[in-house]
Write a structure and sequence with these properties.
The complex is a heterodimer.
Chain A: H1 9-21, H2 47-61, H3 68-74, H4 78-88
Chain B: H1 2-16, H2 22-43, E1 49-52, H3 57-65, E2 70-73, H4 79-90, E3 94-98, H5 105-113, E4 118-122, H6 129-138, E5 142-146, E6 156-161, E7 164-169, H7 171-179, E8 183-190, E9 195-200, H8 211-235
Classes of the chains: A mainly alpha, B alpha/beta.
Chain lengths: ~100, ~250
């Protein structure tokens, strides 16, 4: 029997947030791969979309993204974003 | 200057529906030169006031609430001074988004004169632009953006202007929705020595309706003001201080 890994609840929540915040049509949260680049990829997000996402993430997780370097690092992919949030967010706001 | 002369002729041709007369091109450049001189005088501390015109209801409402806002302006008449006058006359912290160009020296002198109230965010330092903007808004300041040039604008949309559907920056409304800030579009018009009158749109306030509904309302808001701006240009063609190619026709 093959190993089965439970989906990471934070990554699942992030994918939902990305789709709902940016009103991505024709994209379902489960369509987003963990390692897919969020900016400049098939999602076609621009700098305003990135800003909107940053503001939403700050509110949702009680953290502060201070510069474009930090945001680039955080928004590199869903996996990076999850790692970034785990390291900085108020633990009480993390799902699971 | 040949480039600017060509763009002036292009604009005047579109506005008048015929080739401009030499005197019309001259008046266009003369009006701009007078405005540059006014900026230097104001930067040296010569008193200059902005007064709200009767149709500046949105601006008046904004001043009454004391709420920070996003101010959309255009390269028209004395519009460049409205942010400075708002800062000093109304004691508001205003962040202006400007493009740093070879002759930005006069802007910096003007900024030094108004330093207590006005700060610049340089648009061509694109790396941190959006975060500088976010910090300015988080700090409770009003932010002034030009809404007629496409460079550096992440979001553009087509509007009726000077006989065609032309592309304009639309970022200001996206920022309004992200930060829940009102938008007022305004222009300043020369009104005699030491005075500019400020004309404005009504206040656009993002509401609880969805993004699509808010953006639809924003499009109407912007178009309405563009139509007024065009009427002002038809009355005073020389006040269009945008010596660049006209906004491109939408594909």
């Amino acid at each position: 029997m093959g190993a089965y890994s439970m989906p990471d609840p934070l990554k699942t929540k992030l994918k939902q947030l990305i789709v709902t915040t940016l009103k991505l049509e024709d994209v379902k949260p489960e369509d987003l791969a963990d390692d897919e680049p969020l900016i400049g990829s098939g999602l076609n997000l621009d700098s305003i979309d990135a800003l909107e996402l940053v503001v939403t993430l700050e509110k949702e997780f009680g953290l502060k993204i201070k510069s474009s370097e930090e945001s680039r690092e955080a928004l590199a992919s869903v996996a990076h974003l999850a790692e970034f949030i785990r390291a900085r967010a108020d633990p009480a706001r993390l799902p699971g | 200057m040949p480039g600017q002369r060509a763009h002036s002729r292009e604009y005047l041709t579109v506005l008048h529906g015929r080739a401009p007369r030499w005197s019309e091109v001259f008046r266009h450049f003369w009006a701009f030169e007078e405005f540059l001189m006014l900026r230097f005088r104001v930067a040296r501390g010569v008193p200059h006031r902005g007064e709200l015109a009767a149709d500046a209801g949105g601006f008046r409402q904004l001043l009454a609430t004391g709420e920070p806002a996003l101010l959309g302006t255009f390269h028209f008449g004395h519009s460049d001074l409205t942010g400075f006058l708002l800062g000093r006359q109304e004691h508001r912290r205003v962040y202006m988004i400007r493009q740093r160009v070879g002759n930005s020296h006069d802007t910096e002198i003007l900024g030094a004169e108004f330093a207590e109230w006005v700060s610049f965010i340089w648009v061509n330092e694109a790396e941190n632009l959006l975060f500088a903007l976010k910090d300015a808004i988080d700090a409770g300041g009003s932010v002034a953006l030009k809404c007629d040039r496409l460079e550096f604008s992440a979001k553009t949309e087509a509007f009726n202007f000077l006989g065609a559907r032309r592309l304009f920056p639309f970022t200001i409304y996206h920022l309004a929705l992200i930060f829940r800030r009102p938008v007022v579009l305004c222009v300043g018009r020369p009104a005699g020595p030491g005075l500019s009158t400020v004309h404005s749109s009504p206040l656009f306030v993002p509401d609880a309706a969805g993004k699509a509904a808010n953006l639809a309302r924003a499009r109407e808001h912007f178009q309405e003001f563009l139509t007024r701006l065009e009427a002002m240009l038809r009355a005073e063609p020389e006040l269009w201080f945008n010596f660049l190619p006209l906004n491109p026709v939408a594909p």
